[in-house]
Amino acid sequence: MGASPLSCSAYNMFRLRHGAPMLRSALPPPPRSIIAGDSRGSSRKSASRFDGERFPEHGEKQSSTNDVQQYDVAIVGGGMVGMALACSLATMPLTRQLNVAIIDSHPALQGKLFIKKEDPPDPRVSTVTPASISLFKDVGAWEYVLQHRHAFFDKMQVWDYTGLGYTRYDARDINKDALGCVVENKVLHHALLSCIQNTELQKTIYPSRLTSMTIHPSSSSTRVDNTLSTTEMHNRGNLAKLELSDGRSLYAKLVVGSDGGKSHVRELAGFKTTGWSYPQNAIICTVEHAVENHCAWQRFLPAGPIALLPIGDNFSNIVWTMSPQEASERNSMNEDDFVKAVNHALDDGYGPHPKSSLLGNGDMFSWLRANATSSAKESFQVPPKVTKVASARMVFPLSLKHANDYASRRVALIGDAAHTVHPLAGQGVNLGFGDAFALARVIAEGIAVGTDIGEISLLKKYEAERKPANIMMMAVLDGFQKAYSVDFGPLNILRAAAFNGAHYISPLKRSIISYASGEQKLPLFS
């Protein structure tokens, strides 16, 4: 005998709240997706898969003869974080039946990914943490990442230009195979897109921009009366109205702003922010070595950190933070001079290599060394030399910004729309992925109990889960940025002591790794 709808809902709520695995059904028939408003014809007559095949349009509620489009969720911003939300909605049992609109004019949403193996990696990459990898695996997107270039790394070395301290991390310290994986952003985006395409999620892509959003005051009920017309539901506050740059309008129960640090959704919804600009720019580019790099490297310099991240084969990615003037000067250097500058910054420029520990070589601290992790017994290593620049150099300003609220009635913010952070630990996109998957779970909880998914009381559950975690990470990164921006003798000694403490004190090291991996909420001793 089949289970009743009530018992199914109760069990689904149990699974959502207690982290039990969601069962995935077998792959559906060939996927369909709509690209609304194809310039070659009416959006009412044609729709397009990403590979150009044509299918009848679906996934839209037609509430009148005036071609009014109504959706459950409208995702404004189809980048990595927005697509992570769509992918999660597409694969969860309680949300896969939703109608979803994706509003973004980026051409990557309308075409296949073509990567030639002989081409160097794109300089726009992300360091995906083990926690994010686990989320990608849960929704079936990671298998698509593995089909393209990527680089796992199991070791990391961090040190200071003063030569007073360093620390090394190893995945074996926490019984893991890897500390993270460096992947080109376009590969991550394509993987999420491919995952969505192989589901039955009803979705429409609008290659347009959001220009205005209207949300009327809501009735007291937390449940939506679906017998009303779209206009009546909008007037009662049960739907948000979105107007696009191409003149079309659509309605949605929930609008999700995943449209980046300059979020238009955040602006239109009236969310206030707190933040500041750093007196720093970052240069990013792809570089090449004579040998393959399997370690992540980061050195703190007087003007900001430089990071060298493996990206596969003999390539690495550079993220170099410095003053805007220095960034302008180094960006205009010829290739040979820039390579020399990079090697100078990663080797013994600005100061000597760390050669000895503040713990000394006597017996006083021998118990610490004896009980240290395997990586604590490793000596300082010099990063591999950069031999050439393999991509264009890109420069962008750095800032910290945080939305005071992540949710209001009918609106939620995720990713950079809610928070932007300093790139020194590569945490930005991972925080965004955490937002996306958390919001999907909250939406599923609302569906399980019959609550309007745009109701603020439901969306505040998402905010309550993600806001403290994001603020904590932002505070840690901002603290690092400020602590390493000052060249002052006593502070240099304190920084060196922190490096050595992280290097030798096993509980502290394991806690740091777990926190940076996204697997521990707060950097507490384990």
Automatic annotation (TrEMBL):
Location (main, coarse): mitochondrion
Domain FAD-binding: 71-347, 393-469
HAMAP family: COQ6_monooxygenase
Residues covered by region (Disordered): 23-66
Biological-process GO terms, alphabetical: carotene biosynthetic process; xanthophyll biosynthetic process
Assembly with partners or alone: Component of a multi-subunit COQ enzyme complex.
Broad EC category: oxidoreductase
Organism: Monsonia emarginata
The protein's required cofactors: FAD
Record membrane topology: Peripheral membrane protein
Keywords: FAD, Flavoprotein, Membrane, Mitochondrion, Mitochondrion inner membrane, Monooxygenase, Oxidoreductase, Ubiquinone biosynthesis
Name of the protein this chain belongs to: Ubiquinone biosynthesis monooxygenase COQ6, mitochondrial
EC identifiers of the protein: 1.14.15.45, 1.14.15.46
Catalytic activity: a 4-hydroxy-3-(all-trans-polyprenyl)benzoate + 2 reduced [2Fe-2S]-[ferredoxin] + O2 + 2 H(+) = a 3,4-dihydroxy-5-(all-trans-polyprenyl)benzoate + 2 oxidized [2Fe-2S]-[ferredoxin] + H2O; a 2-methoxy-6-(all-trans-polyprenyl)phenol + 2 reduced [2Fe-2S]-[ferredoxin] + O2 + 2 H(+) = a 2-methoxy-6-(all-trans-polyprenyl)benzene-1,4-diol + 2 oxidized [2Fe-2S]-[ferredoxin] + H2O
Residue ranges of the TM segments: none
GO molecular function: 2-methoxy-6-polyprenolphenol 4-hydroxylase activity; 4-hydroxy-3-all-trans-polyprenylbenzoate oxygenase activity; FAD binding; oxidoreductase activity, acting on paired donors, with incorporation or reduction of molecular oxygen, reduced flavin or flavoprotein as one donor, and incorporation of one atom of oxygen
InterPro entries cross-referenced by the UniProt entry: FAD-bd, FAD/NAD-bd_sf, Ubi_Hdrlase_CS, UbiH/COQ6, UbiH/COQ6_monooxygenase, UbQ_mOase_COQ6
Pathway: Cofactor biosynthesis; ubiquinone biosynthesis
GO CC terms, sorted: extrinsic component of mitochondrial inner membrane
Function in brief: FAD-dependent monooxygenase required for two non-consecutive steps during ubiquinone biosynthesis. Required for the C5-ring hydroxylation during ubiquinone biosynthesis by catalyzing the hydroxylation of 4-hydroxy-3-(all-trans-polyprenyl)benzoic acid to 3,4-dihydroxy-5-(all-trans-polyprenyl)benzoic acid. Also acts downstream of coq4, for the C1-hydroxylation during ubiquinone biosynthesis by catalyzing the hydroxylation of 2-methoxy-6-(all-trans-polyprenyl)phenol to 2-methoxy-6-(all-trans-polyprenyl)benzene-1,4-diol.
Gene name tied to this protein: OXase
Compartments, record wording: Mitochondrion inner membrane
Family to which this protein belongs: Belongs to the UbiH/COQ6 family.
Basic and acidic residues compositional bias, start-end: 48-61
PANTHER family: UBIQUINONE BIOSYNTHESIS MONOOXYGENASE COQ6, MITOCHONDRIAL (PTHR43876)
